Amino acid sequence: MESGHIVKSFDDELNQLHGIIAEMGGLCEQQLALAIDALVKRDRLQAERVIRSDKQIDRLEEEVDNLAISILALRQPMAEDLRSVIAGLKTASNLERIGDYAKNIAKRSEALTQSEQLGNATGTIQRMGNLVQGMIKNVLDAYLEGDGDKAEDVRARDEEVDLLHTSLFRELLTYMMESPGTITPCTHLLFIAKNIERMGDHATNIAEYVHFRVHGHPPGEARQKGDGSSTMVVEPMGN
Amino acid sequence: MVNPMKDMTTEEHPAPLLHAVAQGVPIKISARGVCVSYGDKQALFDIDLDIPERKVTALIGPSGCGKSTFIRCLNRMNDVIENCHVSGVIDMDGVNILDKKVDAVGLRARVGMVFQKPNPFPKSIYENVAYGPKIHGLASNKKDMDAIVGKSLSRAGLWDEVKDRLHSPGTGLSGGQQQRLCIARAIAVRPQVILMDEPCSALDPIATAKIEELIDELKEKFTIVMVTHSMQQAARVSQATAYFHLGQLVEKGDTKKVFTSPDDERTQAYITGRIG
């Protein structure tokens, strides 16, 4: 991005920090893809692998914390360097949360292995998952390249995830009203969808840190939000 | 020279030049178009800078950038350098202090200075502090003088350490104490502005911390301008920061802003330790 520090080991440490975050981001993408795949294929073993792998993300977050604290204490970074370390810390904690959500999806997909597929719900979840996976990938690219525009683009895409979530919420409520036997799988699916929606929110948080890192201030404009599920009421049929 | 201010606001002098007030903070000193050259070599180019009243303003920049040259303009220390030519306007309380009609000695009573290396006079601690008030006629008797010396040493955070040996030589103090003695000497003549040219560069971290704490307290009463090579120090003690580079003022602003997201790439390169 710019010329290096006079003290080269400072550059090495910053690169190391970004390297760990890149690795965390890669793992998060993979965990999300595998968790949804386990859900679609009703694959219990794969779900278990996802649950186990989450520890690796947690370990990496710890590494980021330790390195960032040591950089703050020993290098006393200023300006872009300071923003870079702070953005790194916050990004890692958001990635860690994304990892947790993937793990939770895997757990719920284990619980769903016994149940039938419900309409197009899994398909919608897959679409949401693909979208969010793309957001995580692009926001990480934006982070590593210090590209504010790319980050802005990720922020804009969260609305689409929110809209899908809202429509899925409506669909699942309808199934539950039609047949109380679907309440267990539908509830799990609702939480899975909510998890993916939250992952999208974390990706947009990271996009905001990239903006802060590049421009020196948080993005000003409030982004469009499309999630209407929190206020939705579906009237029982026949009323 | 009972009231140096009075001499400077006679009718011969022009009306107030600038009453720039940035973000509601009153401006103590306003420099406009200040150029300085040493013989053929120009050291400062067209500097415009407002120094907020009763705040600490840090001047930072690489060696030879002109920050010390600039601070020396503020009490006309450059007058004594042969071949040094200063132009432009430095407005302080409505008077252009660069005007030759302004008495430099009176100006220096209002604009005190503390240097990089502590330089107490080879006299007692008491006499070091009393010297300025004596020549400026600020005390009419011994009692007044004792009060000025006591107050100045207290303000400089040195009183408790030296009250039992006021008549021992100032040079017998530790480096940090000597620097605080120099600050006491500077504030004894009741200046409005204190200039500090790298006041801590010869001190250990503890003595540095004491001076920084002192600067923080002094800003309640005085306008402080300091040159420092330590970015951390500038960040710790100042409220406004100006970055000089090759004789130009590249960036000025709120210290928090300059150190978290400077506008100019040269500032960024300097404060993050990159090759500019």
Explain this structure to me?
The complex is a heterodimer of chains A (239) and B (276). Chain A is mostly helical and 239 residues long. Chain A has one domain (2-231): Phosphate transport system protein phou homolog 2, domain 2 (Methane Monooxygenase Hydroxylase, Chain G, domain 1). Chain A has helices at residues 8-41, 44-75, 79-111, 121-145, 148-178, 183-215. In chain A, helix 1 (8-41) runs antiparallel to helix 2. Chain B is an alpha/beta fold and 276 residues long. Helix content of chain B is 35%, strand content 24%. Chain B has helices spanning 4-8, 67-73, 104-110, 125-135, 142-155, 159-162, 175-188, 205-218, 231-237, 255-260, 265-271, and strands at residues 27-38, 41-52, 56-60, 84-92, 95-96, 111-114, 193-197, 223-227, 240-245, 248-254. In chain B, the strands form 2 sheets. Chain B has a 6-stranded mixed β-sheet, sandwiched between helices. In chain B, strands 2-1-4-5 form a 4-stranded antiparallel β-sheet, covered by helices on one side. The longest helix of chain B is centred in the middle third of the chain and has 14 residues, at 142-155. The interface between A and B is medium-sized, with 18 and 16 residues.
Structure classification of chain B? alpha/beta
Query: How would you sum up the major sheet of chain B?
Result: 6 strands, mixed
- Give the DSSP E fraction of chain A (strand runs of 2 or more residues): under 5%
User: How many strands, which pairing sense, and closed or not: the largest β-sheet of chain A?
Assistant: none
**Parts with pLDDT < 50 across at least 5 consecutive residues of chain A:** none
Structural class of chain A: mainly alpha
Counted up, domains of chain A total: 1
Strand content of chain B: 15-25%
> How many β-strand stretches of chain B?
10
CATH superfamily of chain A: Phosphate transport system protein phou homolog 2, domain 2
Helix % of chain A is over 70%
The average pLDDT of chain A is: 92
Based on CA atoms alone, the radius of gyration of chain A comes out at 20 Å
